[in-house]
Design goal:
- The protein has helices spanning 16-20, 24-35, 39-52, 72-85, 99-102, 114-118, 133-149, 166-170, 193-198, 212-228, 251-264, 269-295, 297-311, 317-329; strands at residues 60-66, 90-95, 122-125, 154-160, 175-180, 201-204, 239-242.
- The chain has 332 residues and is α/β, with parallel strands linked by helices.
- The two termini are 43 Å apart.
- The longest helix has 27 residues, at 269-295.
- Helix 2 packs antiparallel against helix 7 and helix 13 runs antiparallel to helix 14.
- It has 14 helices and seven strands.
- It has a seven-stranded parallel sheet with strand order 3-2-4-1-5-6-7, sandwiched between helices.
- It binds guanosine-5'-diphosphate.
- Guanosine-5'-diphosphate (GDP) binds at residues 66, 68-74, 205-206, 208-209, 211, 244-246.
- The site of guanosine-5'-diphosphate has 16 residues, from helix 4.
Length: 332
């Protein structure tokens, strides 16, 4: 079972100095606190984050997504070990909104990334179950800042490709990497155009053995598909690569492409991160407003009546929304 967000661990606020010194237990406790939904924990987390923020921002932030079975954990393990060999430290955070429904495709699977998890240069943290995609993503963003303050120089944010969470992850990273499988044909494996548009890097997995030739074809298909998409950045043209996490072919090239992307964005990275932080602020505000609106007794009373009236077609949804907003804003 995953640790619940408001587990007793969160009661013990970790020391900032311990986190900054890279103490992994302190970092883990900080993230538990960040993920907690209890109001007193939230307040403590805000204070902690304020102290950590000046020390954050030093990592390369990479988002990784792909359908279940595409090879995410195998890739992240091979990629992470490669980076560690090159002298880096790496934190892996997971955003898994599907876990609330399915019982967890990222969580609960203890054998994932076993070798990487054993390395002192890595830190792997799954997301809490039972929250909406947006909520998980926001807390993951804060966890990412904590990992940066703890000195990790690469943060990977993994999400399972079920559609809701990719945009949220793309909004918190410098580069979004989409993993796809060899084969799949003309429909490009049903990967939505919107998700393709988010990807700065597409990587075909499992390019080994009998799958090597299909992987090359898939790579060519995606290169063609990407060339048809409208350019989303004047600074970077999305690339398609192929690799094998089993024999290591192409893994170094993925990192080289990420380094090239970082170089290409040097002058605009601060702007990109600034825009992401501003968008995050508005998301937070939206969520906070919705939460206090839902917690408001008078709104709840009116909402029950208005929902019925909307269902029966007696009042339009927009008029009902206006009424509820009026009740909310008129409170003492
Ligand atoms: P995830 O669900 O996306 O995390 O996928 P996994 O990493 O668990 O991999 C799913 C399956 O694909 C497993 O059976 C892996 O052994 C296999 N797989 C992953 N990477 C490779 C690869 O590079 N080559 C081959 N041949 N198989 C792979």
């Amino acid at each position: 079972m995953a640790k619940q967000p408001d587990s007793p661990d969160a009661d013990e606020t970790p020391r900032v100095a311990d986190i900054l010194a890279g103490d992994r237990r302190a970092l883990a406790r900080a993230i538990t606190l960040i993920e907690s939904t209890r109001p007193d924990h939230r307040a403590a987390a805000e204070t902690l984050l304020e102290e950590l923020l000046p020390h954050a921002g030093g990592a390369v932030r990479i988002g990784i997504s792909g359908a279940p079975g595409v090879g995410k954990s195998t890739f992240i393990e091979a990629f992470g070990l490669h980076l560690i060999e090159a002298g880096h430290t790496i934190a892996v955070l997971a955003v898994d909104p599907s876990s609330a429904l399915s019982g967890g495709s990222i969580l609960g699977d203890k054998t994932r990334m076993e070798l990487l998890a054993k390395r002192p240069e890595s830190f792997i943290r799954p997301s809490p179950a039972g929250q909406a995609a947006g909520g998980v993503a926001r807390r993951t963003r804060e966890a990412m800042l904590a990992c940066e303050a703890a000195g990790f120089d690469i943060v990977l944010v993994e999400t399972v490709g079920v559609g809701q969470s990719e945009a949220a992850v793309a909004d918190m990273v410098d580069l979004f990497l989409l993993l796809i499988q060899p084969g799949g044909g003309d429909d490009l494996q049903g990967i939505k155009r919107g998700i393709m548009e988010l990807a700065e890097l597409v990587v075909v997995t499992k390019a080994d053995g009998v799958l090597e030739a299909p992987a090359r074809h898939t790579k060519a298909d995606y290169e063609a598909a990407l060339s048809l998409l409208r350019a989303t950045s004047p600074h970077w043209k999305p690339r398609v690569l192929a690799c094998s996490a089993l024999n290591g072919d192409g893994i170094a090239e993925v990192w080289e492409a990420i380094v090239a992307h970082k170089a290409a964005l040097t002058d605009v990275l601060a702007d990109k991160r600034g825009a992401q932080a501003r968008a995050w602020m508005w998301h937070e505000l939206q969520d906070e407003l919705m939460a206090s609106l839902r917690a408001d007794g008078r709104v709840a009373k009116q909402a029950a009546k208005l929902e019925e009236a909307v269902s029966d077609g007696k009042i339009s949804p927009s008029a009902a929304a206006q009424k509820l907003l009026g009740v909310f804003l008129a409170r003492d």
